[in-house]
């Protein structure tokens, strides 16, 4: 199922991953078309940047209302594009998008309102504040695993901040593009905003390059390999970039955890969207006291999962979106097994008798993993959960930090002091104690990673402000009373010989530690002022 039409390379072929059914062909944007879309968004943004907070809230409220009313249809679109089940779509497309919209509607204005800051010592006559100014046009390059949420989430922040948007959707989820364009365009139009403010583009690498070259800021959601290419291209124009990249998230599970609850949470965390989740739990690091029991229980649970087309009845897990991803998952598994890993259940590509062209991989539990295996270091992005054994707390911390990724993590223990100790030592962008996913769902929190999982953040106050230039402003605090900051005469041009002494005395007064140092400064200042006055008097006598 090739997405590039061999007979017409300017077309993107869209396929349903769980049936292999051809859906449609979409025209790929050329570089010039991308640049024109950015130019149109920039023109529309010149008006929109002056829009009221209420108008922006109204746009987002209409989107939220549509999302909730049409959730069933949206889940079907997501399933058709990406192969996920309807339940996975509610978890990954509807709920986090609704949370993002609702939080931004309720708290966005507060987060972006001018913020008064402390003036400081030398600037005591100035009132200081920070203002958040829209960057202009946000370029969003998003991945295929959540074709709705990955689009609407960053779009929400961009609109609230007063920006335009050009969004390159993944070529693997292009079937949804016309629907996304119509929905967002209609919402903008209803609220008196030009449709040109937001454009969705389909395309290949050249379209992404053109967007990086012309947008004012880039948010990229995808793999580390492509993230490096985006960053390299952005460096040519010094375009700022937010990179949300891959993960190798893990849950550390202690003997004293709440076992049954932990089991349910980690299975959802590991197999949500067939493991195609940037913050999915690819690893479970389990203490030796419950390791054998957990391997047995997890293998039984996973072995009973019903795999298939989400449009069929009684299906627990859908398909793998990209055919090439099937080979990546299989290669990683085969390398691990060849080096001694043990498959507890699953472990191979599944051929659905009803949908032989569907892209399925059996949910798999793998144990006895060692650092020489590729699967220990590389992101799987598929339905494989790796289970490690540990004895001591420090051993668990060493294992969880042993990869180049650092996106999310979890710790399960009823000893909260121990859990907090571990959480602080995990090198990741987030950690959930006795949970999974809350650090993403909680929209007041920033989201992002460290190491090869990317940098900068979206989500929360930090992510929303990331859609803005941060401008520092000062004004004379008591100007209305005729009191204004002035340069002391001794510092006027041409420079007097007493100027440096005056500054030294002033520094002692303002910043000297302890009353003695400040008193020394006062004495020096008085001596300096007297010297200036005497100097001026003698100069006048000579002139006369």
TrEMBL record:
Active site annotation, chain numbering: 244
Record keyword Lipid biosynthesis present: no
InterPro entries found in the cross-reference section: Ald_DH/histidinol_DH, Ald_DH_C, Ald_DH_CS_CYS, Ald_DH_CS_GLU, Ald_DH_N, Aldehyde_DH_dom
Coiled-coil blocks: none
Gene Ontology BP annotations: reciprocal meiotic recombination
Keyword set includes Transit peptide: no
GO molecular function: oxidoreductase activity, acting on the aldehyde or oxo group of donors, NAD or NADP as acceptor
SUPFAM superfamilies assigned: ALDH-like
Pfam families: Aldedh
Stretches assigned to the Aldehyde dehydrogenase domain: 5-472
Keywords noted in UniProt: Oxidoreductase
Entry similarity comment: Belongs to the aldehyde dehydrogenase family.
The name this protein goes by in its record: ALDH-like protein
Organism: Rhizoclosmatium globosum
């Amino acid at each position: 199922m090739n997405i590039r039409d061999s007979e017409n390379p300017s077309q993107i072929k869209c396929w349903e991953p769980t049936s292999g059914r051809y859906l449609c062909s979409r025209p790929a944007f050329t570089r010039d078309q991308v640049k024109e879309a950015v130019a149109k968004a920039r023109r529309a943004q010149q008006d929109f940047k002056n829009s009221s907070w209420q108008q922006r809230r109204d746009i987002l409220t209409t989107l939220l209302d549509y999302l909730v009313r049409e959730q069933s249809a949206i889940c079907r679109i997501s399933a058709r594009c990406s192969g996920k089940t309807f339940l996975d779509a509610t978890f990954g497309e509807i709920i986090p998008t609704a949370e993002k919209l609702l939080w931004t509607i309720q708290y966005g204005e507060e987060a972006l309102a001018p913020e008064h800051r402390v003036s400081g010592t030398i600037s005591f006559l100035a009132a200081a504040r920070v203002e958040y100014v829209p960057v202009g046009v946000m370029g969003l390059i998003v991945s295929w695993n959540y074709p709705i949420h990955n689009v609407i989430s960053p779009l929400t922040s961009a609109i609230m901040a007063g920006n335009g948007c050009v969004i390159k959707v993944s070529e693997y989820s292009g079937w949804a593009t016309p629907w996304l364009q119509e929905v967002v365009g209609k919402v903008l139009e209803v609220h008196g905003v030009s449709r040109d403010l937001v454009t969705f583009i389909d395309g290949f690498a050249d379209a992404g390059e053109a967007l990086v070259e012309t947008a004012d800021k880039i948010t990229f959601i995808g793999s580390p390999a492509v993230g490096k290419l985006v960053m390299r291209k952005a460096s040519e124009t010094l375009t700022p970039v937010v990179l949300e990249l891959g993960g190798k998230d893990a849950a550390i599970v202690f003997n004293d955890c709440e076992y049954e609850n932990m089991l349910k949470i980690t299975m959802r965390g590991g197999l949500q969207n067939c493991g195609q989740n940037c913050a999915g739990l690819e690893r479970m690091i389990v203490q030796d006291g419950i390791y054998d029991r957990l391997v047995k229980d997890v293998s039984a649970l996973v072995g009973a999962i019903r795999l298939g087309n989400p449009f069929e009845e009684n299906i627990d897990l859908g398909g793998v979106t990209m055919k090439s991803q099937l080979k990546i998952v299989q290669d990683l598994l085969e390398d691990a097994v060849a080096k001694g890993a043990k498959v507890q259940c699953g472990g191979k590509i599944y051929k659905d008798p009803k949908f032989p062209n569907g892209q399925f991989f059996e949910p798999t539990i793998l144990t006895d993993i060692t650092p020489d295996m590729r699967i220990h270091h590389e992101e799987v992005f598929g339905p494989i959960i790796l289970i490690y054994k540990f004895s001591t707390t420090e051993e668990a911390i060493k294992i969880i930090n042993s990869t180049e990724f650092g996106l999310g993590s979890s710790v399960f223990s009823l000893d909260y002091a121990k859990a907090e100790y571990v959480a602080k030592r995990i090198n990741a962008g987030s950690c959930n104690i006795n949970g999974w996913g809350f650090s993403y769902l909680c929209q007041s929190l920033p989201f992002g990673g460290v190491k090869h999982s990317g940098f900068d953040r979206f989500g929360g106050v930090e992510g929303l402000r990331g859609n803005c230039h941060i401008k520092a402003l000062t004004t004379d605090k008591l100007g209305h009373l005729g009191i204004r900051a002035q340069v002391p005469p001794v510092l006027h041009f041409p420079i007097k010989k007493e100027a440096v002494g005056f500054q030294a005395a002033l520094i002692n007064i303002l910043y000297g530690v302890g009353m003695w140092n400040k008193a020394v400064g006062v004495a020096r200042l008085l001596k300096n002022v007297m010297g200036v006055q005497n100097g001026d008097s003698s100069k006048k006598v000579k002139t006369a």
